[in-house]
Design a protein that fits this description.
about 30% helix; about 220 residues; globular; two-stranded antiparallel ribbon; alpha/beta
C-alpha cells in the first residue's frame, strides 16, 4: 500500500535557550530535521513525506531538502495554530488511499525498524501507536488531593502514530477541542479505538540541551 509520512516541525527553541527552532539545530553537523527525514525515506522506497513547517521557516526547510534529499519525494505544508491544525493541513495534500505516519520532527532517532512495525500493525489493525513503559513513580491529581497510579498501567506515547487513511482523514474532519494532544486522541474522539505497539527508548524528543547531547552520543555509536 502507498505510504505518506507527515512530519510535524512546528517546534521552537524556547527550552533550548535558542532562537533557532529545535528542528534546525545542528547535530553532528547536520540539522536535527535531516535525520528524521532520512529515516523515513530509507524505510520504504515508495514512501513520500509531507513536511509541515511554520510559515516563517518554509525557506529554511526547503534549503535542507535541496541540500540532502530527492525533492520529488517531499512536499511542504504550512503549519497551523495547533498541532491538530498542522496535521490537518498536511492531510489536505493526501489524495490517495494509503498508510499515514504522523511523526514529530524532533524525534530524530526514530528507527527504520519502528517505522516498519508501525506500518505492519496499521495494515493489520488500522492504527499503530508506539508506546514505552514509564520508569518513574506516578501520581494523579484529584479533587481530593492526589493518588498513586499503577506504573504498569501507564504508557508514555511516542510517534510515528500510524493510521490507514480511511481512519485518519475522516477523523480530522471533526471540530477541534483542546484535549487533542495527538492523533490518537483525535481518532478516539471520532469513536474508534487505537492499537499500541512497542516503542523505543531512543525515540525521544529533542526538547532540552541535554537531549541534543544524548542524541549526538547515540549517533556516534552507530
Amino acid at each position: 500500500m502507498k505510504k505518506n509520512a507527515i512530519i510535524v516541525a512546528g517546534g521552537t527553541g524556547s527550552r533550548m535557550n535558542s532562537s533557532i527552532p529545535k528542528q534546525f539545530l545542528l547535530l553532528q553537523g547536520k540539522p536535527v530535521l535531516y535525520y528524521t527525514i532520512k529515516s523515513f525515506l530509507l524505510s520504504y522506497h515508495d514512501l513520500k513525506i509531507i513536511l509541515v513547517l511554520p510559515e516563517d521557516h518554509v525557506a529554511q526547510g526547503q534549503s535542507i531538502i535541496d541540500a540532502f534529499f530527492d525533492y520529488s519525494r517531499i512536499q511542504i505544508a504550512v503549519g497551523g495554530r495547533t498541532r491538530f491544525h498542522s496535521v490537518q493541513n498536511g492531510l489536505k495534500l493526501i489524495q490517495e488511499e494509503c498508510i499515514i505516519f504522523v511523526h514529530d520532527a524532533v524525534r530524530c532517532l526514530v528507527s527504520i525498524d519502528l517505522i516498519k512495525r508501525c506500518y505492519d500493525t496499521a495494515i493489520e489493525r488500522g492504527s499503530a501507536i508506539p508506546v514505552i513503559d514509564s520508569k518513574d513513580s506516578l501520581r494523579l491529581i484529584t479533587e481530593e488531593g492526589n493518588e498513586a497510579l499503577e506504573r504498569v498501567a501507564v504508557k508514555q506515547v511516542q510517534t510515528p502514530q500510524t493510521f490507514h487513511s480511511k481512519i485518519l482523514i475522516p477523523a480530522y474532519q471533526i471540530n477541534y477541542i483542546d484535549k487533542f494532544m495527538d492523533e490518537a486522541a483525535v481518532v478516539e474522539a471520532f469513536g474508534l479505538k487505537v492499537h499500541l505497539v512497542e516503542g523505543e527508548e531512543n525515540n525521544f524528543k529533542i526538547t532540552s540541551p541535554v537531549d541534543l547531547i544524548m542524541a549526538a552520543y547515540l549517533l556516534s555509536k552507530n
